[in-house]
Specification:
mainly beta, 22-stranded antiparallel barrel, five-stranded mixed beta sheet, 4 helices, globular
């Protein structure tokens, strides 16, 4: 009996001793080859269920039960798994681990797995820009238009719409600072270069809805660009029929600089338009990013931009055939006059960064933007609208009768000067599992607007409009407005990560508030998102986001037009204008898998946006004309899907598909919104020649629904039709001359180059005549004809790019 009691006592003593042992606190950081923290890396103890995951910066903490030998396993999708062994660990243990990517090399082509996305902000690889065939010159925006939910129906423009919104509803940041585009551009021919220099881009973040409170007051999307920091001395030069660009960078332990110059002329593309004449576009851009580290904690950076875009055009004639085989029509015009526009802008931003410790950082930012825009044209056109006889051969069509003949004269002397000055203070801190961000911003805006434009038109010798006792122009507009206003905004948000038995949860909640003294309006935007990675299926990621998003008026939205005593249209500013509002609901999922031994990811998002306080608008090419009043409400809903992966080993490609309905109710009449494209299919595909990977092929294809168009002045409420579907295929073939494993070309002088590529692009491979706007003509019977303004046809482009 005593022996049994002794054994029981010994057993209880051992149990109590084990329970009394203190657990070991294991902490550290998981970084990649560039010493950047890896988010969502898994840390687990081998042979147990104990584990955790890293935060946004790669830090982790884990309580471990003591043992003679503890094996810690570090893993992350796309990286090689690493094991670390601890022998009889005690107390607090710090262990920092570096993970290297899983590289499957096909000669010089490197393949990597895909990262997880727990928020609505997706990260896009900028390397796909280099060889992409693009009529705008390899812009970031052209890459975006191949993504689900992003649409563009004009290859001459870098503007895009997202989920039924317009171009003005997208906010763009470069290094945390909001950037702007010209305000008076009317067409893609004038637009010139995007602000974003693709040669300087380091990382791209994009969200099409449900984004966090740190991003400003826009209703549709966020594009967050970070320019790269040079590693040492590097540079790139490229040239093509569309222009040229050059960038150079240099870095030391304290000082780094990056400069980029771009020149673009799209005269060869414009020569394929129906309107023939002398096109002289010239677009120039210079950007710089300079940084200096005073100490490891203090850094000063400067981002600067100078842009000078001029567009000169002397039209000569235009011939446009349209209609059907049963009712074919020809619009013939002979021109006199010219157009001369220039858009000049300056941008500068200073940022002072202070890294207090590894968990807390502060930034003070000051920026200024100035734009001077001048649009001048006097163009006279004499036109004939003829019905065509299609009974003969296609090449022998002849006029069967005249539907209308007339003359028009367009005149404009428009000038706009705008300036925006802003000062912001931002902070970020990490406390345990919480990542807190906050900031405040003050913005001063000054705008001087001078507009004097009119159009005279006659049809069959009668002035239009045909009034019995007075003479009026068919359209005229005058503006003499000076505006100055102030904005205040602030935000705070917290991201919290919770690891449980069922998986990893990521909660982000924040609130944003803004005040504008022009209309004395204060808006408050709460925003929440949840991400979930199931423990039993880590290849699956689920997310949900909701929030209130406002579109604060800038200038174009509040321009109202009224009639004066002589029935002329005059611009007045509506001080009762309110911010448009959109309530987002976004439900999405990502599923990563391997097929034919290659990584793939399928993404799907279902969204609904409730819209109110809308300011109705119409779109003509890239010009947006607002009504100036909050007089409609509506919604946008749809489904976006994307399959991303290696359809060809060693290259990333993707296929996107979107369905959408975007409607608004104006004065009791429900109509589609001007940017509603009910369906859209996009493909970005990369390939190479087997056994000869130095030969690469890139294809960019888009097929999207036509846009709704209403007659001028009456709008879509009186009736609308849709343009033809936008269908375009651009293809490029490239050959690597220097780089990779080519030893012969990498000797001597060429050994100083990282790569030299030569390529040939074919824009609009199928030679489809796309339409994105119309010119309206009235015949002798008072019937209106919408004459399509066709976009560019097939064009070849030769390019050369060098990196060193």
């Amino acid at each position: 009996m005593r022996s049994k009691i002794y054994i029981l006592f010994l057993f209880l003593f051992c149990v109590c001793t084990v329970q009394a042992q203190k657990k070991i606190r294991l902490s550290g950081q998981v970084v990649d080859a560039n010493n950047e923290g890896i988010e969502l890396a898994s840390i687990r103890i081998e042979g147990t269920t104990t584990g955790t995951m890293t935060d946004l910066k790669g830090h982790y903490e884990l309580d471990v039960t003591p043992a003679d030998t503890v094996v810690v396993v570090y893993s992350c999708l796309g990286y090689r798994t690493e094991n670390r062994t601890l022998l009889s660990p005690e107390g607090d243990v710090t262990m920092n681990v570096r993970l290297y990517t899983i590289d499957r090399s096909i000669k010089e082509v490197v393949v990597s797995e895909h990262r997880k996305q727990t928020s609505t902000l997706q990260h896009i690889d900028s390397k796909d820009l280099k060889l992409m065939p693009d009529a705008t010159g390899g812009s970031v925006e052209a890459l975006l238009t191949t993504m689900a939910k992003v649409n563009s129906s004009n290859e001459l423009s870098s503007q895009y719409s997202v989920r039924g919104g317009n171009f003005d509803e997208n906010i763009v940041y470069v290094n945390g600072i909001e950037v702007y585009r010209p305000l008076t551009v009317r067409s893609g021919q004038q637009e010139g270069l995007s602000f974003i220099n693709p040669d300087m881009v380091g990382s791209i973040g994009f969200s099409s809805g449900g984004y966090s409170a740190e991003y400003g007051d826009k209703m549709s999307s966020v594009l967050d660009i970070t320019y790269k920091q040079p590693e040492a001395f590097e540079g790139a030069v490229s040239a093509s029929f569309l222009g040229a660009s050059a960038s150079i960078g240099q870095s030391t332990s304290r000082f780094s600089q990056l400069h980029g110059v771009r020149f673009k002329t799209n005269s060869t593309l414009l020569s394929t338009l129906d309107t023939k004449g002398e096109y002289k576009p010239s677009f120039f851009d210079y950007q710089t990013l300079i940084s200096y580290k005073f100490t490891p904690q203090w850094k000063l950076s400067f981002l600067g931009n100078i842009s000078n875009n001029t567009y000169k055009f002397t039209p000569q004639e235009r011939t446009t055939k349209f209609g059907t085989s049963n009712q074919a029509t020809q619009f013939k015009v002979y021109f006199d006059g010219m157009e001369k526009d220039y858009f000049q802008s300056f941008f500068g931003a200073l940022s002072l960064d202070y890294l207090r410790n590894k968990n807390t950082a502060f930034s003070l930012l000051a920026s200024a933007f100035v734009t001077n825009e001048n649009v001048r044209y006097d163009i006279t056109g004499q036109y004939w609208l003829d019905e065509l006889d299609m009974s003969g051969e296609a090449s022998e069509t002849a006029a069967a009768g005249t539907l209308g003949v007339g003359t028009y004269h367009e005149h404009a002397r428009n000038r706009l000067n705008a300036g925006v000055i802003s000062i912001a203070f931002k902070g970020a801190t990490r406390k345990g599992q919480n990542d807190i961000k906050w900031g405040a911003n003050y913005q001063l805006e000054r705008i001087v607007d001078r507009v004097r434009e009119w159009e005279m038109r006659d049809s069959a010798g009668y002035s239009m409009p045909n009034l019995d006792r007075r003479l009026e122009l068919i359209s005229n507009l005058n503006s003499r407005q000076n505006m100055q206003s102030n904005r205040l905004s602030a935000y705070i948000q917290d991201t919290y990560r919770l690891r449980s038995k069922i998986g990893l949860f990521t909660f982000t909640g924040g609130i944003r508030a803004s005040f504008w003294d022009f209309n004395r309006e204060c808006i408050v935007s709460p925003r929440v998102s949840v991400g979930y990675i199931p423990a039993k299926e880590e290849r699956l990621t689920l997310r949900f986001a909701t929030g209130i998003y406002y579109q604060a008026p800038f200038y174009k939205e509040l321009r109202d037009t009224v009639r004066d005593g002589r029935n002329n249209l005059v611009v007045e500013l509506n001080r009762n204008i309110k911010s448009q509002r959109s309530i987002h609901f976004v439900l999405g999922q990502d599923f990563s898998f391997r097929a034919i031994d290659r990584p793939f990811k399928f993404t799907a998002e279902l969204y609904y946006k409730k819209l109110d306080n809308l300011i109705p608008y119409e779109v003509d090419n890239v010009k947006i004309w607002y009504s100036g009043h909050n007089e409609s409400k509506g919604y946008a809903a749809g489904l976006d899907m994307k399959l991303f992966g290696q359809f060809v080993p060693g290259t990333d490609s993707w296929l996107s598909f979107s369905l959408m309905s975007a409607r608004e109710t104006i004065n009791g009449i429900t109509v589609p919104r001007p940017t509603e494209q009910r369906y859209s299919v996009a493909l970005f595909f990369q390939d190479y020649v087997p056994r000869f990977p130095k030969y690469k092929f890139n294809l960019r294809a888009i097929w999207s629904d036509g846009l709704p168009i209403g007659s001028p002045k009456l709008g879509r409420q009186s009736g609308y039709f849709r343009t033809t579907p936008y269908r375009r295929v651009d293809i490029g073939a490239s050959r690597l001359l220097v780089g990779g494993e080519d030893r012969f070309m990498s000797r001597g002088f060429f050994k100083n180059f990282k790569s030299i590529w030569i390529g040939l692009d074919i824009f609009n491979l199928l030679n489809i005549s796309n339409v994105n706007s119309y010119y309206w003509v009235t015949d002798v019977y008072g019937d209106q004809y919408a004459v399509p303004n066709y976009l560019t046809t097939r064009q070849f482009n030769l390019r050369l790019s060098v990196e060193f």
